[in-house]
Write a structure and sequence with these properties.
globular; five-stranded antiparallel β-sheet; single chain; alpha/beta; 15 helices
């Protein structure tokens, strides 16, 4: 089996946080990381979305929106789309901080009301656009015209400081105007008034990102994709690849996958813990992965049953380790730790 395993945020982003890093015992993962062939790509986009896109060969100007829309079960057609995710922006210590839709707990009724409001207003204004809420916290905008702008994916911004929502370029002036009008509409809606009265975060803006048109001619990279991530599912669909749920463990994957198959698995267990600086949740996630995935994987690689490509999006860049049978027999290379890797990548001493 050739297994590509994508695990966003495998390396804790604070190398000096010894309390989080020093208490972790992960010998199987440590052996895989120490003896595999490491690759570090210092990309401008280190998001989970970029990691998934790169696995399918997409690295520049990725049209995330139509691919995600396709993964949600909607046909983007030949239109140009942008992700238009509902968010809450607030000032904290003179910084503008973003909370994403899952954090502010948007329900389906609120999403439906707000999207209808936006569509009715812009239709009356003669704008040839349309908002589509595929889930309460994932919205899409069908654009009136192609728009070439680059903002980070929402997965890279959740819980983070926001410098600006859209680039200050002449070609995006119409989109900035649309965003300003959308913010005013959201602010005055009764759903947000109810949220304010209940001391809940309001839905006061949209995060626009990932514009483009559905790509054509993408080659098939994998026999099966295991993921719940809508981008991965959209890429599977556009490449004609079978898509399935994420197995609970490597043992479960082995039971379902052909021995000679090329498999992609996307595990998102660590992502939100890092986004919201929850070190306890991240530690528990690593321990669970050690037991359910890394221990049996190390044995399977050592026996020659699996060739492993382990990849992760991190603050240090897009990281990868290729691990083959002979690599794990280099016992003179002692297993490393996540803390040691974080310190090395950050250029500090553990």
């Amino acid at each position: 089996m050739r297994l590509t395993l994508l695990i966003p945020e495998l390396i804790w982003p604070e190398p000096g946080d010894r309390q989080t890093l020093d208490s972790l015992a992960t010998p199987a993962l440590g052996a895989l990381l120490a003896r595999g062939r490491e690759c570090v790509e210092a990309a401008t986009d280190n998001s989970a979305d970029a990691l998934i896109a790169a696995a399918f060969g997409l690295t520049d100007n990725v049209p995330y929106a139509p691919l995600r829309l396709l993964g949600e079960g909607h046909d983007p057609g030949t239109h140009h789309w942008a992700c238009a995710d509902p968010v809450h922006l607030r000032f904290h210590q003179e910084r503008l901080i973003l909370a994403d839709g899952r954090t502010i707990a948007i329900d389906a009724a609120e999403a439906g009301q707000l999207v209808r409001l936006l569509n009715d207003y812009f239709a009356e204004a003669g704008e040839a656009i349309e908002f589509v809420a595929t889930t309460p916290d994932r919205w899409h905008l069908r654009l009136a015209a192609p728009a070439d702008f680059r903002t980070p994916p929402l997965s890279a911004m959740a819980g983070r400081r926001v410098e600006r929502q859209l680039p200050e370029e002449s070609g995006t002036a119409w989109l900035r105007r649309l965003l300003n009008e959308a913010q005013m509409l959201l602010h005055g809606h009764p759903a947000n008034e109810s949220r304010t009265e209940a001391d809940r975060l309001t839905i006061n803006s949209l995060w626009l990102w990932g514009p483009g048109q559905l790509p054509a001619g993408l080659g098939r990279c994998f026999g099966t994709v295991h993921s719940t991530h809508p981008l991965a599912r959209g890429l599977a669909k556009v490449t004609g690849t079978a898509c399935a749920a994420v197995p609970a463990s490597f043992a479960e994957l082995q039971q379902a996958a052909p021995a000679d198959g090329r498999i992609l698995v996307v595990i998102e267990d660590l992502l939100r813990a890092v986004q919201y600086e929850d070190s306890d949740a991240w530690q528990q996630g690593i321990r669970d992965l050690e037991a359910r995935w890394f221990e049996p994987l190390a044995a399977a690689v050592r026996s020659g049953r699996v060739e492993l490509d382990l990849q992760s999006s991190t603050i240090y860049g897009l990281l990868g380790w290729q691990v083959r049978r002979g690599d794990l027999w280099r016992v003179w290379q002692r297993p490393t730790t996540i803390g040691a890797i974080a310190a090395r990548l950050a250029g500090s001493t553990p």
